[in-house]
């Protein structure tokens, strides 16, 4: 597998390094991403008009890719508004406070529930379900919204998605690319997922707890999501009188979780996954929003339904606004580049800029067990930079096959390691636009969430890579 890197590869890599440096320094990267898009467009089209148009077209492309997530977040937030205004949220979550009595119990409780849910339905639908029900309870016992987002993110988009033992989308892709049975890759990934998950979540919790005690913890709340908003209150949407009797609130507090439970059962029976599962939850949330609003606001119900939806969409787009330019740049590392600028931009053997960089790295290092483990972890992390986590895991499987052939052992372990690294980085724990579901549901900045996750995930990857060396 031989890939010749061109100027466009090196320019993309230079901007990645620049962007990551700015993120670490807590600086805004929107302007740099636009400059990167412009530069890539100029190289690809060799025309000023093509590069300028490419900026707008890349924004449109990124918005299309993110629209499903924007919609589900906006709808869940709109529903949460009316539940908070009517007091249903308060009634619904009060029993949970018996189990989530402390910030620590809330962190681990939300994480474990998120892990179990994500194994069956993937993280994005699980975030919508858990955020709507458990987040208010966690906030009431003192867990910061950013801490709740970390728990959802690390357990769901990290542990559950990197193993993917129920749906088996990730191990199927990597196993096929490596020429191995799916079962062998899943078996090899179990100890790696356990080590990675344990190290990362414990480290993240310890760092959060230390900063809370020292008074240095940054809440990361976006301006549109102060604590009152997270609990469902909204001055704009609540301008009409919303009155429900205690018995009605208790009834709806039991019915609404039951409806989401029915969604879960339907997902299992009908084998709904990914976007289909998210759509079911979103449609249910819309119907709940309409019914509760009409019941609570009566004569003003028609207008208030629109008001709540506007409130939800305003929140969603305010959260996603800073992310779209960054996502637009990183999508150019995958299929967006040829789609926006033509198929002749990259060499015929190319599989996208990000994947080409991963192949070049693999070809540049010597082959032995230790170097192979480090290389697969780095290659997996690099291919995850496009924010999907899945686009590069086939490449990780292919490179693992090459390394294992040269070394003479460790094919399944190397394949699983590349899979774990790619999904932890790109699946939603480090790349800001990939972890938007958890950040938006909790009302925190995705950039602040990425910064909180950075050290725990890097420490986890380092420990897991060393651990994998002993398994090869």
UniProtKB/TrEMBL annotation:
Name of the protein: Membrane protein
Residues passing through the membrane, by range: 6-24, 31-56, 68-88, 100-120, 126-143, 188-209, 252-272, 278-296, 308-332, 430-447, 454-471
Keyword annotations from UniProtKB, A to Z: Membrane, Transmembrane, Transmembrane helix
Superkingdom: Bacteria
């Amino acid at each position: 597998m031989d890939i010749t890197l061109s100027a466009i590869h090196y320019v993309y890599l230079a901007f990645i390094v620049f962007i990551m440096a700015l993120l670490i320094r807590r600086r805004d990267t929107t302007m740099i991403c636009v400059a990167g898009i412009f530069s890539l467009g100029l190289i690809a089209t060799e025309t000023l008009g093509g590069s300028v148009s490419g900026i707008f077209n890349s924004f449109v492309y990124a918005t299309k890719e993110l629209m499903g997530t924007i919609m589900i977040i906006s709808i869940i937030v709109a529903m949460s508004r009316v539940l908070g205004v009517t007091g249903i949220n308060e009634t619904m979550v009060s029993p949970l406070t018996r189990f989530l009595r402390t910030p620590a119990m809330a962190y681990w409780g939300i994480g474990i529930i998120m892990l179990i849910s994500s194994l069956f339905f993937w993280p994005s639908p699980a975030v919508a379900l858990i955020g709507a029900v458990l987040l208010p309870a966690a906030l009431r016992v003192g867990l910061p919204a950013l801490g709740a987002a970390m728990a959802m993110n690390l357990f769901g988009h990290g542990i559950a998605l990197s193993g993917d033992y129920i749906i088996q989308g990730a191990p199927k892709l990597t196993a096929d690319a490596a020429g191995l049975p799916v079962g062998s890759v899943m078996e090899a990934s179990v100890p790696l997922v356990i080590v990675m998950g344990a190290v990362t979540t414990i480290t993240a919790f310890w760092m959060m707890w230390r900063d809370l005690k020292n008074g240095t913890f940054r809440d990361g709340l976006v301006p549109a999501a102060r604590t009152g908003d997270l609990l469902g209150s909204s001055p704009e949407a609540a301008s009409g009188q919303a009155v429900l009797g205690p018995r009605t609130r208790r009834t709806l507090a039991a019915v609404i979780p039951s409806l989401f439970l029915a969604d879960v059962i339907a997902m299992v029976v009908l084998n709904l996954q990914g976007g289909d599962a998210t759509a079911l939850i979103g449609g249910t949330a819309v119907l709940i929003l309409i019914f509760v609003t009409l019941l609570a606001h009566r004569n003003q119900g028609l207008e208030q339904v629109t008001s709540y939806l506007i409130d939800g969409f305003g929140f969603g787009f305010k959260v996603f606004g800073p992310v779209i330019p960054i996502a637009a740049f990183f999508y150019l590392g995958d299929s967006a580049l040829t789609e926006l600028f033509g198929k002749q931009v990259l060499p015929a053997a190319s599989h996208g800029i990000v994947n080409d960089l991963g192949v070049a790295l693999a070809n540049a290092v010597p082959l032995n067990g230790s170097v192979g483990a480090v290389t697969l972890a780095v290659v997996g992390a690099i291919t995850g930079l496009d924010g999907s986590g899945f686009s590069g895991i086939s490449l990780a499987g292919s490179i693992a096959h090459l390394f294992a052939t040269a070394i003479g052992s460790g094919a399944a372990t190397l394949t699983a390691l590349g899979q774990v690294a790619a999904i932890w980085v790109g699946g939603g724990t480090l790349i800001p636009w990939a972890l938007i579901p958890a950040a938006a549901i909790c009302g925190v900045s995705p950039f602040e969430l990425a910064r909180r996750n950075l050290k725990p995930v890097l420490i986890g990857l380092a420990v897991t890579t060393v651990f994998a060396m002993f398994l090869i």
